[in-house]
Amino acid sequence: MTAPDDQSLSPLSFLIRSAAVWGDREAVRDGRRSWTYAEHHARVERLAGGLRTELGVEDGDRVALLLPNVPAALELHYAVPGAGAVIVPLNTRLAAAEYRYILEHSGASVVFCHRSLEGPCAEAVEGLPRRPRVVRVGEGAGGDDEYEGLAATAARAELRRPRDERALLSINYTSGTTGRPKGVMVSHRGAYLHSLGQVIEAGLTTRSRYLWTLPMFHCNGWCYTWAVTAAGAAHLCVPSVDPDALWQRLREERVSHFCAAPVVINMLLESEAASPCPEPVRAFVGGAPPSPALLERAEQLNFAVTHLYGLTETYGPLMICAWNPAWDDLSVAAQARLRARQGVPTIVSERARVVDAEMRDVPADGETTGEIVMRGNNVMLGYYRDPEATVAAFSGDWFHSGDAGVMHPDGYIELRDRLKDVIVSGGENIAAVEIEQILVEHPNVAEAAVVGLADERWGEVPVAFVTPRGGGALDPDELREFARSRLAGFKLPRRVEVVDDLPRTATGKVQKFVLRDRLSGGEDRPAPSP
Amino acid sequence: MTAPDDQSLSPLSFLIRSAAVWGDREAVRDGRRSWTYAEHHARVERLAGGLRTELGVEDGDRVALLLPNVPAALELHYAVPGAGAVIVPLNTRLAAAEYRYILEHSGASVVFCHRSLEGPCAEAVEGLPRRPRVVRVGEGAGGDDEYEGLAATAARAELRRPRDERALLSINYTSGTTGRPKGVMVSHRGAYLHSLGQVIEAGLTTRSRYLWTLPMFHCNGWCYTWAVTAAGAAHLCVPSVDPDALWQRLREERVSHFCAAPVVINMLLESEAASPCPEPVRAFVGGAPPSPALLERAEQLNFAVTHLYGLTETYGPLMICAWNPAWDDLSVAAQARLRARQGVPTIVSERARVVDAEMRDVPADGETTGEIVMRGNNVMLGYYRDPEATVAAFSGDWFHSGDAGVMHPDGYIELRDRLKDVIVSGGENIAAVEIEQILVEHPNVAEAAVVGLADERWGEVPVAFVTPRGGGALDPDELREFARSRLAGFKLPRRVEVVDDLPRTATGKVQKFVLRDRLSGGEDRPAPSP
Question: How much is the pTM?
Answer without folding.
Answer: 0.85
